[in-house]
Design a protein that fits this description.
Elements: E1 5-8, E2 19-20, E3 27-28, H1 31-41, H2 43-46, H3 51-59, E4 76-77, E5 82-83, H4 90-108, H5 115-125, E6 130-134, E7 140-144, H6 146-157, E8 167-168, E9 175-179, E10 184-188, E11 192-194, E12 199-204, H7 211-227, E13 231-236, H8 241-255, E14 266-269
Parallel strand pairs: 12-13, 13-14
Antiparallel strand pairs: 1-14, 2-3, 4-5, 6-7, 8-11, 9-10, 11-12
Length: 276
């Protein structure tokens, strides 16, 4: 039994030996294979150190400095299996946020494109079903409906993401598409954005939307695919199976010794989540 997809070009990272053991030179098709090899064959070298940190330092030797101040060292995150990009200085985190917003505007948007998407986002935030989710670090994020709330709770409680990992999709990255019903150009803003994975996320309740709404969603999805600037997944009815697989795939691609081409991954369950 397999799900039907209107678009699913998720690529396998297995089959190519792109993960090299820096201790013995052996290569593997996936990071998991490399990890199992290292913890079994090179356990004497790893000792009591976090094996993920050991492998990361082997692939990326040298002191890990804050990308903002370039002076302070960054801490290892045992949950995310990587070093933080910024030091613990709050000024560095603030400056990083400002730089991110400026860079997104430079790459994806211009001033004359911002008004409509921002107004659209403001209208969504003011709906009765909207609310504010508070992360453990105190940062708040706006959600629209219980399905988005469930997604945020899942990200924090199950995946151990933080407020810097999942943010609202930037309005200056809004995707333009043509509404074929009215022949009017509109803006599409996915629900969330994971900057480190260049991943946009759409959250849907698959049972409540009429056919015309699903048709408009298909227009938006085709616009995202045509734009081809970021990875995209639509999560329907709180089913995070494909989301979990995609995160692992993107992380493996990020740490592979040999990178694949720049094509992006789109995972879009067909309307109704039909099953073959």
């Amino acid at each position: 039994m397999a799900k039907k997809y209107s678009k699913n070009n998720k690529r396998e990272v297995t089959g190519r030996r792109r993960f090299k053991c820096e201790d013995c030179g052996q290569r593997f098709g996936t990071f998991d294979q490399l990890f199992k090899h290292a913890t079994k064959i090179h356990s004497d070298l790893i000792g009591n150190e976090d094996p993920y940190k050991y492998l990361f330092d082997k692939r990326n030797p040298g002191i890990k400095l804050c990308v903002i101040c370039k002076k302070n060292t960054c801490e290892w995150n045992p949950v995310k299996h990587k070093y933080a990009r910024y030091c613990t200085n709050p000024e560095c985190k603030k400056k990083a946020r400002e730089m991110f917003q400026k860079n997104m505007k430079r790459i994806y948007g211009t001033d004359n494109l911002l008004n409509d998407p921002e107004h659209q986002a403001e209208m969504l935030a003011n709906r009765k079903i909207s609310g504010k989710y508070t992360w453990q670090d105190g940062v708040q994020i706006i959600y629209v409906g219980k399905y988005e709330l469930d997604f945020l709770q899942y990200c924090e409680n199950t995946l151990h993401f933080t407020s810097s990992d999942v943010i609202p999709f930037p309005t200056n990255m809004a995707v333009r598409y043509l509404d074929k019903f009215t022949n009017v150009e509109r803006f599409y803003i996915p629900d969330f954005w994971i900057p480190s994975l260049n991943l946009a996320i759409e959250i849907k309740d698959g049972s409540k939307y009429p056919l015309d709404s699903k048709a408009k969603m298909a227009m938006k999805e085709e616009a995202v695919i045509k734009l081809d600037k970021f990875n995209f997944i639509k999560i329907v009815d709180k089913d995070y199976t494909d989301f979990n697989d995609l995160i692992k795939t993107l992380k493996d691609l990020n740490c592979a010794e040999v990178k694949k081409d720049g094509n992006h991954i789109f995972i879009i369950p067909a309307p109704g989540n039909d099953v073959l």
